Amino acid sequence: MSDEAMRYEGSFFGRRRGKPLRAGRAALIADDLPELKVDLAAVPDDLGALFPVPVREVRLEIGFGGAEHLLHEATQNPDVGFIGVEPFLAGLAKGLAGIERLGLRNVRLYDDDATQLLDALPEASLARVDLLYPDPWPKTRHWKRRFVSDQNLGRIARALKAGAPFRFASDIDTYVAWTLEHARRSPDFEWTAAKADDWRRPWAGWPGTRYEAKAIREGRRGNYLVFRRL
Length: 230
Prior knowledge:
- By secondary structure, this protein is of the alpha/beta class.
- It is 33% helix and 16% strand.
- It has one domain: 3-Layer(aba) Sandwich (Rossmann fold), CATH 3.40.50.
- The protein contains 9 helices and 7 strands, in the order H-H-E-H-E-H-E-H-E-H-E-H-E-H-H-E.
- The termini are far apart.
């Protein structure tokens, strides 16, 4: 396995390339990604300037996978700007295909380590951050690879506006407990749950994802946590 195919940068571990992409999907990455990709060297103070249409706020989704949630949210909220992060080429290609098919102009993408993007964003510039069904790294010796960490929560907090939500979804109980432990000891966040249904039921308007559907088929249940930026 080459260093290009498998590497670690900041918080990203794993293989970026799987099966070869079909010609059409490969062409989307070659032709459309350069126009939609956030340039870390030229991030504007007003993130709304990233979009060719007026937006009232900007939200970030880290690791959008098959892009089901990202595309749904962008379609339902045309006056909101969305930045989607996905380092895996198959998922990135699905996102690009959906953006083209739906004619979306309120989505921008980043195809590398999310920590690099978070560090480049202006302080208090995001209205929401979503981390949905991230890689759970289930083996105990790999838990340090999980995206949720004290350092990354600090990064998210710096980029979020006061009062804005950080949303986390997972079907892996150990990762849910891990996230609760880290977020509840953070000075920057408070857990918003008041009763069990606040985290056992999907959020209003939740479209579901392929990964979630697979988890349900395999007998696992999703948990949907919301933390407020203090």
